[in-house]
Amino acid sequence: MKLRRSTVLLKAALLAGIALPGTAFAAPAITPPTPSAAVPPALTLLDLDLLGADTSAAPADPSRTIRPYYGNINAFYGTINAFYGNINAFYGNINAFYGNINAFYGNINAFYGNINAFWGDINSVYGNMAAFADGTATIDGYAKPQWTAMAGFWGGLTNQWVALDSQWSAAAGTQDYGAVAGGLRGLVDTSRNFWGAAVQSRTGKSFDDGFANPLFARFGIDPNDPNSLASLDAATRQRFYISWYDQLMNYAGADHVDWWMKAVNWSPALTTTLGSAKRATIGLLDFSITGNATLSDNVSKFGGVSTFSNGHGTAVAGLMVAPIDGTGVMGIAPNATVVAYNPFDASGTSNWDDITKGVLMLSKSGAGIVNMSLGIPGWTFNPGWNQVFTNSDVKKVAQNTVFVIAAGNSGVSQTENVKWDFDKNPEFLLVGSVDPNGTISNFSNRPGTACLIDKSSKCVAGNELMNRFIVAPGELLLVADDSGGITRMSGTSFAAPLVSGTIALMQGRWPWLVNYPAETVSIVLKSAKDLGAPGVDPVYGVGELDVTAALSPLDPTKLVWYAPGPLGSMVPTTAKMLQTTGSAAKWEANGVYVTLFEKIGNTQRDFAVPLSSRLYGQSVTSADGSKQMLMSYLTGRALGWLGQGGASGFASFAERTAPVGVSGDVEVTTAMAPRAPVYGFRDGRMPYQTSVRVAAADGKAGFRMGVGDGAVALGQRQGLAMISDYDVDAGGANPLLGMASGGAYATADARLSPTIRVSAGYTDRNRQRDTRTLGMRELTLLGGTRDAASAQHVSIEYRPASALTLTAAMTHLAEDNAVLGVRSLDPNDFAKGSASDGVTMGADIALGHGLGLAVSATRARTRDRGGADRNLSLSGNGLTTSAYEVAVSAANLFDRRDSIRFAVSQPMYVEAGRFDFSSVEVIDRDTGEIGVVSRSFAPPREARMFVGEMLYGRSFNGGMGEIQLFGRAQLRPSAAAQGTPALMAGTRVSFGF
């Protein structure tokens, strides 16, 4: 009996809906054609259509010409090789099917972001998974596997399947399927061992009764009857294995992971960071959403010609808004609102009048995006769309709506131009389909050389359809069905909602983009990954959708940071971040972020970049009171570009001293030592530091001046005479002196009595950016700022016994445009700098036999020196810091030519204090209005860091040579030392001639 087209279309799925059998527990099987497939005994109308039933007859209503794009079914499925690529190319090797298995599931951090950020605390979501196999690891009564364990399982099982499938193919020639049946039972045994407990917990049945046997029955397989295996051709076998995978993943206790996620650079953590696009509204022009209560809850308004559904609308909606709730599929924008309109009657077709009504209803309902998987077969973009958009009622309400249109499944390239009213018609995107390898799908329509033309009938460069054409995954996507389960479908219908969901994320993060559809379309197109011929081309258009790129700055070099100026003004500058002369990570702000802006057409986007890694993925309250997720996914794109500077040297025994001579009662001594280099800065042209000391011969007074490590000279400690002792990041002996060390210094001392000596001195640092070691990019970022500070130091030394010296000192540190080494490239930050006053107490003890012990403790307070219109400053009483160090040294350890030293220090640690930070942010997230916002934050409260250091030196060749060994270890390293090795060691050998 020949079926009429109107009957066949009763179950047609718009633009794509080719479904895979056996992937939904409750859905009827849908069997796509294969070269050798026989018509199954029980056929749905859709089955007949896909199997080649005559569909040439016109629908009952000739006006209803808008219908599904099945194209030529063979062009979609081709031969078995075209459907699966090459069978091996679809599954991989395993790498191609699962991504790379590590990249598909992660590594866990890579796929799920940080698994803690997406799933919360892994223990609270999955329980403790160590004992999954025996069912003891459960949550809500269900066993939950580890993702890493699942990755290993699927890797092993797929290898097992590849061997079995090859054996199955060979058996077709001998009709002896006994060994194949045994291998299939082995597949069941492997799966049962891993998933049996989960199936038992969920279904109350054994693995075989609750899972394996029902799936075997669906494919006509009886593992105990080898002859039943003869009816499965290569394509059916592959569909069986996909179904095995999909259905077992229902017991994972988590949403299904699918290949398209990695392909478009999307992860659940990304959506979570953005707050799930809570404000966006998506219009769905499609069949009715049925059979899935969760998806139906997202629909705030519905209209249409009928309520007829075939599951297609449900599948499309799921890719956009399915919740991340631990079951089923995941949608890109799960909290977006959906308004829906069904333009199809019971024949499964529509006309332009009903399409117009649907567009009007959805636009009036506030949809910022309308997803449309429909059109005229044989066209990528039919001229009928011009009729819809030029409708006078539509023009009034649709100007701020972006229309996402599936390109169709005829496998054609459009050559015919389309007249277009550029002044009145809204913005739109055409979406084609690619396979897991990023190759255009055989069935996908393409933009070709067609052009949108104005009244002059001329094609202006840039108006070609390819400039509005983007591709996205559209083959074998896992989607929600209309029975509460899952299935796999192919077609441009399922590529389009990935683009619509991405726009929903954009409009959720930047709600004012709803009023800027041209800018929205531009962002999606410019962020696409180029495929095919370089640049825009007639096959792939602009390339493949990249979700993360669309939500990131298109060009980080053009980001702008608005500096609060006088009288509340806002001055745009290049993007800036805090720089530090030491470890930049140590001064991460624990409650503040920098807002960077990107100009896009007539509007701009803001990017909240955390100053603290501990803020990643966390929400903050914006100036308008709304909760905003910090955009931690920008780490590699924005923070990496912003860069950081600063380094510190390592101490050594390399100083060389020599007497100049004695003149009367005066002794003159000079000294020279290598200068510790600091990346990005230069202290002078000479690679050495020098000093001259003039002292009374009786030792009652002396004066020293020089250029270099002034901290050591002013400290005048026998046991703490290394530059590393004064390093703010590694030493604990008065780091205030260390921050002003490196330039000119002078110090004078006098003995007041046999037991008391006093000294006073000055040291400064005035380092300039080093254009010789910095590249152009770094110079652009770091500019011409200098590292300038000075310190005055007064100490009193008391020696109650020959073996004991006690020291008390006061240090005043003045920093230009910096606070304890933290500085900004913006002169308004820390304007006029800061002042620190510290007290240091110490002791040096000679223990005899060449042993010495030195201890030091410093307590300091840092205050802001003030200045108008500052962006970043200290609040209240400023910062209170502490540092201390203990060092043990031994001379003549093995003979009279060596020495060794051990030191343990707590580098500078902020005990208390707060910062005030003023920045320009979006203060109205509906309109995008910006303004100056001030907030207060405290430096990070972390575990104290301790540094252990060892240094051994030995001279040889009569003192003409020296060998030095050194090592450093960070004890209990914290986030304050990120990027610094926990262990470090080295050696140095020098020769004299």
Automatic annotation (TrEMBL):
- Boundaries of every Peptidase S8/S53 domain copy: 307-543
Q: Which InterPro entries does the record cross-reference, listed alphabetically?
A: Peptidase_S8/S53_dom, Peptidase_S8/S53_dom_sf, Peptidase_S8_His-AS, Peptidase_S8_Ser-AS, Peptidase_S8_subtilisin-like, Peptidase_S8_subtilisin-rel
Among its keywords, does the record have Flavoprotein? Answer: no
Q: Which Pfam families match?
A: Peptidase_S8 (PF00082)
Span of the signal peptide: 1-26
Keyword Ribonucleoprotein present in the record's keywords: the answer is: no
Catalytic residues (UniProt): D286, H312, S493
- Keyword set for this entry? Hydrolase, Protease, Serine protease, Signal
Q: Tell me its family.
A: Belongs to the peptidase S8 family.
Protein name, entry field = S8 family serine peptidase
